[in-house]
């Protein structure tokens, strides 16, 4: 019986594993967020700055599709059949609406539940075109109605608690958030999706940006000897996740950018008061496509338009440049220097196959 169940699940592409749900689905959710909420925020901000109303409208349309975009992306990562995939549009809309500020996390769970339920019945009847969408949407909508508000409230409360703690203890929380979120960005999980799910903004979001930038710029500059300009760009505006294979072979190469994050994080929270008041997903993006910096800038613009900030000062730009680029580029190689001299980091340890 067990073998028959395993065979059935395998045939349905249902894989209950940390990789499928914790890495593939989360990573896809971040892509869905990027292709809706984040890009919509960028387009809308551009329209506001240039006074082009049509760009503002386009941005609003993109942001309105946040829930469906995340749900479809998750369904794609779970290898859902077409009817299941398309039915997840309604599920994403329901979960995101009912989840409130914690909508992304509600969509994550609702989309997984609906996708797997839909896959179970997909192509099992002669009226598949009715049964599969019905089961997928019903499962996702019922889950959203009963669970999404609770999931959303829990995620929002957790994010609020982290942000409140950062306001009270900016130094300690600056270190902790910067190091943890930065390491998550390098690991094969989605730091962007986690920041979005927790709606991580404010000083805590600024610390997250600092940690992500320390990993990306730090690895890019530290490995310049091995990887040259191709590696500089691939890691600096792409992802430090490229170093994951090298980290497994020699975990000590992770020390310099992580220590750099522990330095830049509290500088961001205590000295420069760097805040992420744009889209929360940008808190976990670092310098990937300069999304983190664009998110900080859109936050500045929002604060100015709402009267919360008198204007964008030169000190703001100085802090952004130092925290996101200059300090990681300077600190990481310096921290790595004694590790190279003692043999903890050897030539070739940071080489990428580009």
Kindly provide the radius of gyration, computed on alpha-carbon positions and rounded to a whole number of angstroms: 22 Å
Strand count, sense and barrel status of the largest sheet are: none
Write down the secondary-structure element order. Answer: HHHHHHHHHHHHHHH
- From the spread of the alpha carbons, the general shape counts as globular
- The count of helical stretches stands at 15
Q: What is the strand content?
A: under 5%
Unreliable stretches (pLDDT < 50, length at least 5) are: none
Number of individual domains: 2
Alpha-beta classification? mainly alpha
Helix content: over 70%
Q: Tell me the number of strands.
A: 0
Question: In angstroms, what separates the terminal alpha carbons?
Answer: 47 Å
Q: Taking all residues together, what is the mean pLDDT? A: 93
Features:
354 residues; mainly alpha
Structure overview:
There is one protein chain. The protein is mainly alpha-helical and 354 residues long. The protein has 2 domains: 13-158, no CATH class; 169-341, no CATH class. It has 15 helices and no strands. The protein has helices at 2-11, 18-50, 53-64, 66-77, 82-99, 103-121, 128-168, 170-186, 191-197, 202-222, 224-236, 244-249, 255-271, 291-305, 314-341. Helix 7 runs antiparallel to helix 8 (170-186). The protein is globular and about 65 Å long.
